């Protein structure tokens, strides 16, 4: 099991592959060097034998053959036949001088074995044979020095190879283990994350290498993921909490109806209450679904050029009388001179302004004046829905866009706490930004539509 | 009227069928899309009530297939799929109306009635009349008993919609869709406000009321019965 895992490990495979490649390359280099050295040594030996031969041969002069023989005899006496051999043979085949017994050899360079020429040992000898004024001169040198050198070279190569194999394997294993350890760290962290521990992060070495960079990016992705999951957990907890209350009310109404029905009392109004409550619950679900669908962004495919002023004035017109009946006033005060076309979804933009205006109507006291405004600027448009009501406390401004969030004081007024989430989802879909502004008194909501690409 | 209900949830199907027969209609229930297609192309129906999610053939494909077979029977989608796009998809597939679950039966009945008796397109009257109330679409004038009545543009549209469907119940959501083009449920009493203003102008100064509130359902404009 352990071996199989090791064989699948990328660092180990890489280390193995590179180790083998390195060893192979070193071996090839060794063999080539060894062969070159061997050839060089053989050439050097040949040169040396040839040189000795010509030196010996040059001592001969025609007037004094005796001298020549004596010269060869001196060489023979001074050199041990294990190192160098000398042999001078006359025309009749008689040995004149030398340190070896009589033997015949062809002209030029050749190699003989020590045993073949009556010497001890199994060394090979390189010889040069030739004729000097009728006499045969043979000069030779033992290969033993050359063989020794070659042996030393071979042995040093073998040792070096051994050391290199150990180094390559050991180094490879070390680096492989190091890389493997970090990969294992990533693997452990990721399996912890998949097991549900979203706070787990991959440990970094801090040296900024590629594994660190990848691990850092994975950590960032994990940060985003856990933030998203946390947000979702928050939303589902909010939803569960917010739906429990109306479901509980529904249950109580039904129970009351059952009791009263048992006593024979008319329960029509309780049933109506129950129906209303269940309608409210399904309206909340509907709104949640709508928000998530808008957030999914599929509506973008249906974007058309729409006139913001047109949309806002029809909302102002529709809600003017509703506000009036509520003792409030609603006016579309500032309008741009030219058409205010944006690319968008007519239906959703209507809903955006309806939600904002309805929020103002529902949450502001009588005598409040609600003002709509639209201004062009920077190629985009800024739409404003402002009132002079209670406003929203500074610290709650960000929270109001959260799903199901309701200001404490608005718990008693109608609404699901989803209106502004929907507004935000629609604004986001249109690339528009929402700013909340304190008007002392009252609240101003500014929706900034970005500059529109020229159609 | 003969109505084909295509719905795989037995409880919903029975609820619809029972309500329809109490309202004097005849209902056939089919539980899957393929049988519904067969039924719709072999029998005469006045309205199809189609669930979107069906076994065999889904509601959208069913209505597409029915339309492809040149059957013009009005169809209303009845579904728990209530996304923003789904209504558009349903209408594009050839559906005539769209109602999301959970729904009030009165809402469904009002819509089915409206679908079945939708006036032919060539019926382009320029003056609508209900009893002594007259609405001139060309001159955009409203008179009752010969007296001119001043209406806001939205009130005019509201009255026009009510008069075109004289005698039929229009629900709050139907009015929102037709008069205001709202395909969502507003959190304020938009409809009620405009209805009461319209009523103040066309009914209150006169003896006989024409605009009636139908409890728990909607509104209806008709001559005294």
Explain the overall architecture:
The complex is a heterodimer of chains A (455) and B (225). In chain A, strands 2-1-5-4-3 form a 5-stranded antiparallel beta sheet. Chain A has a 5-stranded mixed beta sheet with strand order 7-9-10-12-11, with helices on one face. A two-stranded antiparallel sheet of chain A has the order 6-8. Chain A is 55% helix and 17% strand. Chain A has 9 helices and 12 strands. With 455 residues, chain A is α+β, with helices and mostly antiparallel strands. In chain A, strand 9 and strand 10 form a beta hairpin. Chain A is rod-shaped, with a radius of gyration of 52 Å. Chain B has 225 residues and is an alpha/beta fold. Chain B is built from 8 helices and 12 strands. In chain B, strands 2-1-3-4-5 form a 5-stranded parallel beta sheet, sandwiched between helices. A 4-stranded antiparallel beta sheet of chain B has the order 6-7-8-9, covered by helices on one side. In chain B, helix 2 (33-42) packs parallel to helix 3 (59-68), helix 6 packs across helix 7 and helix 6 (153-164) crosses helix 8. The radius of gyration of chain B is 19 Å and the shape is elongated. The mean pLDDT of chain B is 88. Classes of the chains: A alpha+beta (455), B alpha/beta (225). Chains A and B meet through helix 6, helix 7 and helix 8 of A and helix 4 and helix 8 of B.
How does the SSE layout of this entry go?
The complex is a heterodimer of chains A (about 450) and B (about 220).
Chain A: H1 2-8, H2 10-58, H3 65-78, E1 84-89, E2 95-98, E3 108-113, E4 124-132, E5 135-142, H4 144-194, H5 210-262, H6 268-296, E6 304-307, H7 308-325, E7 329-334, E8 341-344, H8 346-363, E9 369-377, E10 380-387, H9 419-429, E11 433-438, E12 443-449
Parallel strand pairs in A: 7-9
Antiparallel strand pairs in A: 1-2, 1-5, 3-4, 4-5, 6-8, 9-10, 10-12, 11-12
Helix pairs in contact in A: 2-4, 5-6, 6-9, 7-8, 8-9
Chain B: E1 2-6, H1 10-22, E2 26-30, H2 33-42, E3 47-51, H3 59-68, E4 75-79, H4 84-92, E5 97-100, H5 105-116, E6 127-130, E7 133-136, E8 141-144, E9 147-149, H6 153-164, E10 170-171, H7 172-180, H8 190-202, E11 211-214, E12 218-221
């Amino acid at each position: 099991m352990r071996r199989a895992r090791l064989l699948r490990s990328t660092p180990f495979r890489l280390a193995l592959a590179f180790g083998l490649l390195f060893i192979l390359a070193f071996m090839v280099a060794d063999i080539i060097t060894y062969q070159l050295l061997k050839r060089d040594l053989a050439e050097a030996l040949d040169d040396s034998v040839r040189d000795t031969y010509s030196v010996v041969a040059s001592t001969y002069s025609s007037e004094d053959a005796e001298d020549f023989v004596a010269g060869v005899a001196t060489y023979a006496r001074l050199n041990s036949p294990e190192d160098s051999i000398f042999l001078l043979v006359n025309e009749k085949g008689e040995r004149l001088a030398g340190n070896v017994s009589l033997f015949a050899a062809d002209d030029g360079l050749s190699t003989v074995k020590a045993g073949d020429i009556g010497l001890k040992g199994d060394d090979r000898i390189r010889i040069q044979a030739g004729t000097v004024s009728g006499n045969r001169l043979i000069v030779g040198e033992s290969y033993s020095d050359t063989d020794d050198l070659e042996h030393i070279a071979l042995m040093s190569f073998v040792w070096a190879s051994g050391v290199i194999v150990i180094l390559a394997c050991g180094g490879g294993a070390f680096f492989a283990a190091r890389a493997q350890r970090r990969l294992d760290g990533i693997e452990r962290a990721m399996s912890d994350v998949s097991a549900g521990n979203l706070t787990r992060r991959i440990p970094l070495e801090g040296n900024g290498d590629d594994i660190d960079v990848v691990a850092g990016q994975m950590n960032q992705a994990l940060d985003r993921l856990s933030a998203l999951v946390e947000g979702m957990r928050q939303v589902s907890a909010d939803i569960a909490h917010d739906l429990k209350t109306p479901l509980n009310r529904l249950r109580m109404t039904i129970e009351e109806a059952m009791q009263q029905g048992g006593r024979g009392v008319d329960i029509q109004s309780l049933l109506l209450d129950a129906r209303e409550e269940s309608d409210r619950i399904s309206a909340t679900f509907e709104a949640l679904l709508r928000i998530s669908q808008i957030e999914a962004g599929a509506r973008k495919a249906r974007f058309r050029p729409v006139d913001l002023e047109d949309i806002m004035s029809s909302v102002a017109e529709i809600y003017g009388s509703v506000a009036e009946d509520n003792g409030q006033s609603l006016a579309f005060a500032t309008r741009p001179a030219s058409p205010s076309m944006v690319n968008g979804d007519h239906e959703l933009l209507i809903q955006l302004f309806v939600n904002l205006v309805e929020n103002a109507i529902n949450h502001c006291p009588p005598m409040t004046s609600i003002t709509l405004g639209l201004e062009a600027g920077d190629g985009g448009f800024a739409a404003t829905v402002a009132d002079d009501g209670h406003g929203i406390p500074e610290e709650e401004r960000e929270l109001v866009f959260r799903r199901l969030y309701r200001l404490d004081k608005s718990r008693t007024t109608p609404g699901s706490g989803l209106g502004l989430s929907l507004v935000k989802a629609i604004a986001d879909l249109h690339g528009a930004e929402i700013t909340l502004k304190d008007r002392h008194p009252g609240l101003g909501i500014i929706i900034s539509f970005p500059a529109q690409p020229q159609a | 009227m003969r109505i084909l209900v295509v719905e795989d949830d037995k409880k919903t199907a029975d609820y619809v069928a029972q309500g329809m027969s109490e309202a004097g209609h005849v209902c056939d229930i089919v539980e899957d899309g393929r049988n519904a297609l067969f039924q719709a192309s072999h029998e005469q129906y006045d309205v199809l009530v189609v669930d979107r999610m069906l076994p065999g053939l889904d509601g959208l494909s069913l209505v597409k297939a029915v339309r492809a077979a040149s059957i013009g029977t009005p169809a209303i989608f009845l579904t728990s799929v209530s996304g923003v796009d789904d209504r558009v998809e349903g209408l594009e597939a050839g559906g005539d109306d769209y109602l999301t679950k959970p729904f009030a039966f009165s809402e469904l009945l009002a819509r089915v009635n409206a679908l079945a008796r939708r006036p032919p397109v060539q019926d382009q009257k320029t003056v609508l009349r209900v009893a002594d109330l007259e609405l001139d679409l060309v001159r955009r004038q409203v008179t009752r008993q010969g007296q001119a009545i001043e209406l806001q543009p939205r009130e005019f549209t509201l009255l026009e919609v009510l008069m075109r469907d004289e005698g039929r119940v229009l629900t709050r959501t139907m009015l929102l869709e037709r008069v205001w083009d709202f395909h969502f449920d507003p959190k304020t009493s938009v409809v009620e406000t405009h209805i009461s203003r319209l009523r103040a102008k066309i009914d209150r100064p006169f003896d006989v009321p024409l605009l009636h509130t139908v409890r728990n359902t909607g509104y209806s404009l008709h001559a005294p019965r």
